[in-house]
């Protein structure tokens, strides 16, 4: 009871209705740059002893603390005894997200009572599930989808984005020249911005050329780049649709009290995942989601089921109101709201493969026309030649050029 | 000369690469049977999950590997030097983590929490339906056809006939049809684990030979690599990977770890030509040592406590060189797995 009250205080929501189920999505902790830029003074591996794109000790600490924080927040709800019946965690298949998840679990599930297996080590192994990145159409979304790619290309051709490209031409040229990288888009700008950000976090002195552009000039474009992947409904459908489908199905099972529904579902992912999920709900304020930033979906019940969404992007937890809903968003309303973008992974595969087929179909149609034309020309040529041959068949001798030469 | 003799681990000084494939630690039963008196027992972690003893076994295996190969396995964990792969199963993922806790306790700069001398290390895996390397459960049509034929073979028919009395007895007492080596294997595993946990076996087990059941279970594990083609489609995939990794010019990774199942070990050992029937215990391991980038030594431990047994590959004499190893196994190394599966 004391615990429950404590939880209510911690949640700091006036309502403390029954918490039914929770879905958490977080970004990995502090990492090294994924790839330094060609003229980076810190491109030598010796500057980054843990390797490129890897979680640092600080990153491990951030996630360990986040795990402890989650334990505190959900202590009365989630048993301290780890059980795969209550809890499931999935990560993208990347070292830093897998390691963040492990560190987080060390904070969330220190072994208690009969789960202590080595009294000297307050840690226990917990399975983290994953799928190879290029096959992942749930979380990493690196599985290829030509349809999505062409939708994104179309987006960048719209007036708004074409204007930005024009407007940034000088900036891109300046950045390209000085960094040695090919900066031609918001995305490539953001990569560079991110590397400079990490280097400044590590107290590395940035090269002189950055002083006029980093961070102020680059920041708004880096922030905007996080909004592009789910900029409209069609894009969101193919980017976060399967994940929202999974979240909604998970909660739906919880509302139906289906036997094996889990209380707690966690996804360990990336900054883009955080941005895309918020953006899909129409609740993304342009920014770079920081390390260990976390979205929490809480399914609650009073007279009916409703959802609360929170975003923890530092020590502060903010309430997120899905666009078109109240903060206490009726679960059915939430489903209705997201219906246009929700898609099963099967359907996603079908649509993404179909678009492949359509593309090949075009190629097929064009090549058929081309081949048809070729055949037609050939036939026509043969007929003409044959008629000519008939016509000229009488004076074959005189037509032989070789005779004339001879 | 002593160094080269069977069962003695040669000096570490020239090691260049190490592959360790191991069975997970002790687990709870994956299934029960109809008349199981312990059907309602709650297993702390859940059915099929790694037990506390299993976690400890794996941790100790990690410590042991550190002790055995301390000159070779780097003191610090670096992702490009160590690759950890696992089967999809929770118990394997957890076993890998626990082993790593023993093998790579953080030191110096890698200590990130002074109250917790453990560090996160990524464990990768591919889904069960795509895994032809560790769990070896990826669909292979032609293999499945051959596997089905095994049960109509004279050899298996003979075993079934010889054990008909046992099958009938087990059928009567378990309350479910027991008519194949596969079914005996599953039952034996459950009985053995229950006994390990001090759950009194039902009285009918007193009139049955546990050794006979154990042998049938081991025979069941062998049926998965009954023919050369079957070996090629199972153990051969793993051996191909080991050879490819050993052939690469790159210095890293140095250490490959594979968290696997008893069947994985049997499949690999049978493909290597190992003759004895096997029923690998929890934490059983097979180590492939590569020395001077050319010489292969294989060491098998039948469970967590066993002494190593040197595995000799026929027609690859001591020292067995990588090139000779590859030649000796040529027949078993698939060139295009999917194609050969007829998929």
Automatic annotation (TrEMBL), chain A:
Span-the-membrane segments of this chain are 363-387
Q: What is its EC number?
A: 3.1.3.2
Q: Which UniProt keywords apply?
A: Disulfide bond, Glycoprotein, Hydrolase, Membrane, Signal, Transmembrane, Transmembrane helix
For the keyword Transmembrane, the answer is yes
Pfam families found in the cross-reference section: His_Phos_2
Q: Which SUPFAM superfamilies match?
A: Phosphoglycerate mutase-like
Report which reactions are catalysed by this protein: a phosphate monoester + H2O = an alcohol + phosphate
* UniProt-listed CDD domains: HP_HAP_like
Q: Which GO terms describe its molecular function?
A: acid phosphatase activity; phosphatase activity
Q: Which residues form the signal peptide?
A: 1-16
Family as reported in the entry's similarity comment: Belongs to the histidine acid phosphatase family.
Q: What is this protein called?
A: acid phosphatase
Task: Name the species this protein comes from.
Answer: Tribolium castaneum
Automatic annotation (TrEMBL), chain B:
Q: Which gene encodes it?
A: AUGUSTUS-3.0.2_13704
Q: Which SUPFAM superfamilies match?
A: Phosphoglycerate mutase-like
Could you say which protein family the record assigns here?
Answer: Belongs to the histidine acid phosphatase family.
Q: Which GO terms describe its molecular function?
A: acid phosphatase activity; phosphatase activity
Show the Gene3D superfamilies listed in the entry.
Answer: Phosphoglycerate mutase-like
Q: Which PROSITE patterns match?
A: HIS_ACID_PHOSPHAT_1
InterPro entries (alphabetical): Acid_Pase_AS, His_Pase_clade-2, His_PPase_superfam, Histidine_acid_phosphatase
Q: Which reaction does it catalyse?
A: a phosphate monoester + H2O = an alcohol + phosphate
List the lineage, top down.
Eukaryota, Metazoa, Ecdysozoa, Arthropoda, Hexapoda
Please give the superkingdom of this protein's source: Eukaryota
UniProt name for this protein = Testicular acid phosphatase homolog-like Protein
């Amino acid at each position: 009871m004391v615990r429950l009250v404590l939880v209510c205080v911690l949640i700091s929501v006036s309502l403390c209705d029954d918490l039914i189920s929770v879905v958490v999505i977080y970004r990995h902790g502090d990492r090294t740059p994924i790839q330094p830029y060609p003229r980076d003074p810190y491109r030598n591996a010796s500057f980054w002893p843990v390797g490129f794109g890897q979680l640092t000790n600080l990153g491990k600490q951030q996630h360990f603390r986040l795990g402890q924080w989650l334990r505190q927040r959900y202590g009365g709800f989630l048993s301290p005894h780890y059980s795969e019946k209550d809890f499931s965690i999935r990560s993208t298949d990347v070292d830093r997200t897998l390691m963040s998840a492990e560190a987080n679990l060390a904070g969330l599930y220190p072994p208690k009572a009969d789960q202590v297996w080595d009294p000297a080590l307050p840690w226990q192994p917990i399975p983290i599930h994953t799928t190879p990145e290029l096959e992942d159409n749930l979380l990493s979304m690196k599985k290829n989808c030509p349809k999505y790619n062409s939708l994104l290309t179309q987006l960048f051709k719209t007036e708004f984005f074409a204007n930005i490209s024009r407007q940034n031409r000088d900036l891109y040229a300046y950045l390209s020249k000085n960094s040695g990288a090919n900066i031609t888009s918001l995305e490539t700008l953001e990569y560079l911005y991110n590397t400079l950000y990490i280097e400044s976090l590590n107290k590395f002195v940035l090269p002189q050329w950055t002083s006029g552009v980093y961070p102020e000039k680059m920041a708004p474009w880096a922030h905007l780049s996080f909004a592009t992947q789910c900029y409209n409904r069609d894009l969101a459908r193919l980017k976060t649709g399967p994940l929202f489908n999974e979240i909604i199905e998970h909660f739906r099972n919880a509302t139906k009290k289906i036997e094996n529904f889990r209380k707690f579902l966690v996804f360990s992912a990336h900054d883009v995942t955080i941005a895309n999920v918020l953006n899909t709900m129409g609740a993304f304020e342009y920014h770079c989601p920081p390390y260990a930033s976390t979205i929490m979906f809480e399914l609650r019940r009073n007279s009916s089921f409703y959802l609360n969404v929170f975003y923890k992007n530092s020590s502060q937890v903010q309430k997120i109101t899905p666009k078109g809903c109240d903060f206490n968003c009726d679960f059915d309303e939430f489903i209705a709201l997201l219906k246009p973008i929700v898609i099963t992974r099967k359907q996603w595969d079908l649509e993404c493969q179909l678009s492949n087929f359509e593309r090949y179909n075009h190629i097929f149609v064009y090549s058929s026309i081309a081949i048809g034309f070729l055949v037609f020309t050939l036939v026509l040529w043969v007929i003409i030649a044959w008629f000519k041959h008939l016509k000229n068949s009488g004076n074959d001798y005189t037509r032989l050029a070789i005779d004339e030469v001879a | 000369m002593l160094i080269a003799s069977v069962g003695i681990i040669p000096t570490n000084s020239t090691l260049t690469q190490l592959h360790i494939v191991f069975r997970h630690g002790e687990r709870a039963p994956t299934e029960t049977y109809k008349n199981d008196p312990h059907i309602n027992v709650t297993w702390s972690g859940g059915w099929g999950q790694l037990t506390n003893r299993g976690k400890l076994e794996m941790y100790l295996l990690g410590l042991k590997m550190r002790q055995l190969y301390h000159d070779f396995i780097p003191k610090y964990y670096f992702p490009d030097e160590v690759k950890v792969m696992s089967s999809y199963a929770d118990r394997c993922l957890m076993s890998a983590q626990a082993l790593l806790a023993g093998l790579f306790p953080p030191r110096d700069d890698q200590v990130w929490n002074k109250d917790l001398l453990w560090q996160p290390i990524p464990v990768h895996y591919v889904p069960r339906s795509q895994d032809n390397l560790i769990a070896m459960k990826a669909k292979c049509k032609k293999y499945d056809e051959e596997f089905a034929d095994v049960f109509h073979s004279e050899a298996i028919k003979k075993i079934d006939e010889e054990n008909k009395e046992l099958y009938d007895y087990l059928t009567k007492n378990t309350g479910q049809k027991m008519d194949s080596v596969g079914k005996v294997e599953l039952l034996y595993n459950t009985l053995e684990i229950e006994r390990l946990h001090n759950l009194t076996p039902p009285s009918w087990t007193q009139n049955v030979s546990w050794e006979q059941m154990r042998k049938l279970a081991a025979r069941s594990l062998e049926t998965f690599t009954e023919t050369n083609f079957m070996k090629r489609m199972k153990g051969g995939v793993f051996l191909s990977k080991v050879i490819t990794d050993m052939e690469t010019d790159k210095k890293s990774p140095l250490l490959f770890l594979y968290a696997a199942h008893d069947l994985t070990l049997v499949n690999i050992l049978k493909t290597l030509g190992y003759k004895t029937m096997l029923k690998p215990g929890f934490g059983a391991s097979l180590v492939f040592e590569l020395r001077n980038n050319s010489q292969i030594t294989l060491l098998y431990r039948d469970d967590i406590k066993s002494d190593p047994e040197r595995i000799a590959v026929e027609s690859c004499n001591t020292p067995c060189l990588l090139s000779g190893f590859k030649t000796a196994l040529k027949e078993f190394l698939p060139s295009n797995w999917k194609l050969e599966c007829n998929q």
